[in-house]
C-alpha cells in the first residue's frame, strides 16, 4: 500500500473481522482512520477510529459530502456489505439509484467496480489494504490441518478447471466438489449458506475458493476464517483449497488450531 496522509484516510467498513483488524493496524501505525461502518462491529471499531460514522444505508451523496467536509482523500474498503444495502431501494439514495440504472449487470463484481469508479470520479482515491495484512494472506501448499489425500487433490484440480469457466461469469467463487461431481456453486447467498446447502446433499468432498483473474485486489480479496471451518465441519466437508496470495485467512493462528481440531486439510493453490 502506498504511503498515506494519515489525516485524510477513511475506512468504509462492512461486516466481519477484517475491517476491525485494518483499523487496528492503521491506528498502531499512527494513522487512525475515519470509519464509516455498515457492520456489526461498529462499537468495537470505535476505539480504532479517529471518528466513527454509522451508516444505515448506502447513500453515496452523503458519503461524498461528508468525506469532502473532513478533507478525506483516500479510502480503504473492506468487509462484507449486506446485500440489502445494494438492492433494497429504501436504503439507497438518488446517486446510487442512478448508478444502478446504468449498469448492464448487477453482479457483485460489476456493482463494486462502478461504486469504486463513482468515488474516484468524485476525487477520492481507493487504495488497497493487502500490504497492511500481508501476514494474513494464504501461502501456496499445505497451510493447516492434516495433509490432503490423493482423491481430494484430484477433486481440487478438477474444481480449478470448473472455476476457470465460472469465475469470468461473476459467480462460482466457491465450489464444492465430490468425486469429480459439482455438488454446489456459490452465488448471491454467500459461502456460508452454500456450505450448509452442500452438506444437505452429500457428506464428503472438497471446498475450493478462488477469485476471478480481473478481480480488483484493492477491495475485493476473498476471506476464510473459523466460521468457514465450522460450517465445513457441520457439512461433513474435510478439505479446503484457497487461492495463494489472493485469499485472506482471518486470524491465521487460531484458524490453524481449528483446522487441526476439525481434522480439515487446508492448502493454497494457484489458477
UniProtKB/TrEMBL annotation:
Domain LpxI C-terminal, residue spans: 140-266
Signal peptide annotation: none
Protein name as it appears in the record: Septum site-determining protein MinC
Record InterPro entries: LpxI, LpxI_C, LpxI_C_sf, LpxI_N
Pfam family, one: LpxI_N
Segments forming domain LpxI N-terminal: 9-135
Amino acid at each position: 500500500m502506498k504511503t498515506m496522509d494519515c489525516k485524510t484516510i477513511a475506512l468504509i467498513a462492512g461486516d466481519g473481522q477484517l475491517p476491525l483488524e485494518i483499523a487496528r493496524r492503521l491506528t498502531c501505525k499512527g494513522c487512525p482512520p475515519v470509519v464509516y461502518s455498515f457492520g456489526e462491529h461498529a462499537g468495537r471499531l470505535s476505539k480504532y477510529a479517529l471518528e466513527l460514522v454509522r451508516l444505515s444505508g448506502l447513500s453515496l451523496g452523503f458519503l461524498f459530502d461528508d468525506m469532502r467536509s473532513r478533507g478525506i482523500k483516500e479510502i480503504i474498503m473492506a468487509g462484507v456489505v449486506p446485500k440489502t444495502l445494494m438492492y433494497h431501494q429504501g436504503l439507497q439514495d438518488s446517486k446510487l439509484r442512478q448508478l444502478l440504472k446504468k449498469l448492464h449487470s448487477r453482479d457483485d463484481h460489476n456493482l463494486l467496480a462502478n461504486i469504486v469508479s463513482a468515488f474516484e470520479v468524485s476525487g477520492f482515491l481507493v487504495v488497497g489494504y493487502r500490504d497492511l495484512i500481508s501476514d494474513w494472506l494464504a501461502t501456496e501448499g499445505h497451510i493447516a490441518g492434516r495433509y490432503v489425500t490423493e482423491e481430494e487433490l484430484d477433486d481440487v484440480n478438477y474444481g480449478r478447471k470448473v472455476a476457470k469457466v465460472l469465475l469470468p461469469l461473476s459467480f462460482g467463487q466457491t465450489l464444492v466438489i465430490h468425486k469429480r461431481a459439482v455438488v454446489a456453486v456459490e452465488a448471491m447467498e454467500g459461502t456460508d449458506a452454500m456450505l450448509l446447502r452442500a452438506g444437505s446433499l452429500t457428506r464428503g468432498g472438497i471446498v475450493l475458493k478462488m477469485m476471478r483473474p480481473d478481480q480488483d485486489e484493492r477491495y475485493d480479496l476473498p476471506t476464510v476464517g473459523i466460521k468457514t471451518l465450522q460450517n465445513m465441519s457441520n457439512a461433513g466437508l474435510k478439505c479446503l483449497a484457497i487461492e495463494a496470495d489472493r485469499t485472506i485467512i482471518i486470524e491465521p493462528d487460531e484458524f490453524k488450531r481449528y483446522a487441526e481440531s476439525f481434522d480439515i486439510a487446508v492448502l493454497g493453490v494457484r489458477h
